[in-house]
Write a structure and sequence with these properties.
The protein is α+β, with helices and mostly antiparallel strands and about 220 residues long. It has helices spanning about 5-20, 25-30, 40-55, 80, 95-105, 110-120, 125-130, 155-160, 180-195, and strands at about 60-65, 70-75, 110, 135-140, 150-155. The chain has 2 domains: about 5-75, Winged helix-like DNA-binding domain superfamily/Winged helix DNA-binding domain (Arc Repressor Mutant, subunit A); about 95-220, Arc Repressor Mutant, subunit A. Strand 1 and strand 2 form a beta hairpin.
Length: about 220
């Protein structure tokens, strides 16, 4: 491809990523073209590298996440851009973040195992919120009496928090005290939460995730 064709290809990719409103994979970008004009994977990869470089020094960046590539506002400008939204973004309770952190670091993990570590009963509202947001999913059932569900994070979890893989989570050589786990994962995700534009979902039923707390744990059964 000559230089003009490469510039045109970069412009098409940039336009598609801006319009999509979601990550696009390499193959999805290639599928924008008719079969006879479809760029080779190597050319598309090179185009994405050039697009990433062209974003240097600008207010947005090309970000690779689990589902593909997306164009997004750089986090350092979130404070200004966030003022465009009248409603405050949804905030999440410490209990929800700790539960999400344990699933992310210890997956697959059951609700009972989370409760054993945290020392309190996990609120049903927390589990429901994580499932509805598609940040976690049931990946199987533990082969013990009652066959409790095992939870793991999803590709949507990675996309939402700007991660390409779980390897990009803050490294933890071992599970330490729970408060420290919460602080570690918050360093990675809280900025994303604060910048998220407000959204209204019918499935929320008027329930505010920020109000989700722990249910008292009945230690008679443990």
């Amino acid at each position: 491809m000559n230089e003009d064709n490469i510039r045109q290809l970069q412009a098409i990719v940039e336009a598609a990523l801006l319009a999509a409103g979601r990550p696009l994979s390499l193959e999805q970008l290639r599928d924008l073209f008719d079969e006879g004009e479809r760029p080779a994977r190597q050319i598309m990869e090179h185009t994405l590298v050039q697009l990433e470089q062209s974003c240097e020094g600008r207010g947005f960046e090309l970000k690779k996440v689990a589902s593909g590539y997306r164009v997004q506002v750089r986090q350092e400008y979130a404070g200004w851009v966030g003022k465009l939204f009248e409603e405050k973004p949804q905030r999440y309770s410490r209990a929800l973040l700790e539960t999400l952190a344990l699933i992310a670091y210890r997956q697959p993990i059951t609700r009972g195992e989370i409760e054993e570590i945290r020392g309190v009963t996990v609120s049903s509202n927390i589990v429901r919120t994580l499932l509805e947001r598609e940040w976690v999913r049931v990946v199987g059932h533990r082969d013990v009496p009652g066959r409790p569900a095992m939870y793991a994070t999803t590709r949507q979890f990675l996309d939402y928090f700007g991660l390409a893989s779980l390897d990009q989570l803050p490294p933890l050589s071992e599970i330490r005290d729970l408060e420290e786990i919460g602080r570690e994962i918050e360093k990675t995700i809280q900025a994303e939460i604060e910048f998220e534009p407000p959204e209204i979902s019918e499935s929320d039923g008027g329930h505010d995730a920020a109000d989700e707390g722990d249910e008292p744990r009945d230690h008679r059964f443990h």
